[in-house]
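Dear all,

This email documents one entry for the complex benchmark we are building for the journal club exercise. For each entry we list the sequence lines for every component of the assembly. Then comes the predicted three-dimensional structure of the complex as a token string, followed by one or two observations. Please use this as the template for your own entries, and keep the labels exactly as they appear.
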Amino acid sequence: MEKSTSQQILDVAQDMVRSRGYSAFSYADISERIGIRKASIHYHFPSKDELVLKLVQYYREAFSRSCDRIVQSVASPQQQLMQFANLYRDGLRQGQICLCAMLTADFAVLPQAVQDEVQAFFQQTEAWLAALLQRGCEAKVWPCYPSPEVEAKGLIALLQGAQLLARGVEDSPAAFEQIVYPFLASRLSKA
Amino acid sequence: MEKSTSQQILDVAQDMVRSRGYSAFSYADISERIGIRKASIHYHFPSKDELVLKLVQYYREAFSRSCDRIVQSVASPQQQLMQFANLYRDGLRQGQICLCAMLTADFAVLPQAVQDEVQAFFQQTEAWLAALLQRGCEAKVWPCYPSPEVEAKGLIALLQGAQLLARGVEDSPAAFEQIVYPFLASRLSKA
DNA sequence: CATCGTCTATCTACTAGTAGATAGTTTCAC
DNA sequence: GTGAAACTATCTACTAGTAGATAGACGATG
């Protein structure tokens, strides 16, 4: 069974926003990519704002599921942290950065509802990462820093900044790893 | 003496790109802000691409001068690093992030010449910061990490990511400090 | 008078969004 | 079951507005 039209629209829109940004993609672009007329896209998503809002909600759920999968499947906190970092690395192969990182750059031109959803994404991600850091601290696999929340914010900042810096380099995933891995190694080693 | 028209254009364009992004600002916006017709802006900068290219060159020079000032004026490497970090904090009050961070988000839609200039900016900044880290290491004010270049990349990634995360929060500069300062304190302490 | 900077007026291409029609499916009353 | 009504998903054709860009006129300055 093929994907529904609205799902195709969301997928293409996600790719475009993550690689080009909110202001640089249009209904005409989507229309061309999936072989459907502009008006048909408006049928599924009446306005661009609504499309992007749905997009962020959908992205937040998918990202949340990825985090759940990490928690459930893998043993050590170190491995979990590694997998979390690799979530940010993997989009780079297609020239994509985190949807909400891109939308944060475009923050000033977003409608309020989308801004709120982006903020909610970050709070959720920070909370998840802070919990992971806390588990690792309790399991004594890395040092206990004063505030797991602040530590989580710092890590997410690093991951997002590394995504930006890695763009425009020929081998983006490798550039990302070069920045992120030494940091993870030194910052979260047992000593 | 007032600023020249072309300088006014560059200043307004810089503000707009740093707050809204490349695709979300227009000649019409600039025209309105400085009270001049669109056609007059084309007289000074025939195309948007040329305007943005000049903008990045101008920004690179200005940023470079700020770095020079830091090197020359202040005593300790710690203070120099702090001032460098604060360069990234200060634009946040006006909702601005680093011009080249924004343009990296918009990377896919930029003409080649602008992409090259943005890359050059990062290389220059990394080199400057790596040199500062090396001086601090030799002066034994902080530990010597294996590669100052990689360390510099990581720091810049953190600063840019922190800028993104701090947007959309009510007091952005404070949010920026909350992320960056603990990191600088722990990562670059003498022990 | 010639250059500089600005203007008005215009252009083409594109933007998001709408109107109205249509083909195919589903629902439901009889 | 049949037929009417409603719904889904698409289309063509259009709107009003904006994008970057250009041609040519105008006034000032030196």
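Observations: Residues 5, 36-37, 39-40, 43-44 of chain A lie near DNA strand D (CB under 10 Å from a C1'). The interface with chain B takes residues 19-24, 95, 97, 101-102, 104-109, 115, 118-119, 122, 145-147, 150-151, 153-154, 156-162, 164-165, 167-168, 178-180, 182-183, 186-187 of chain A (CB under 8 Å).
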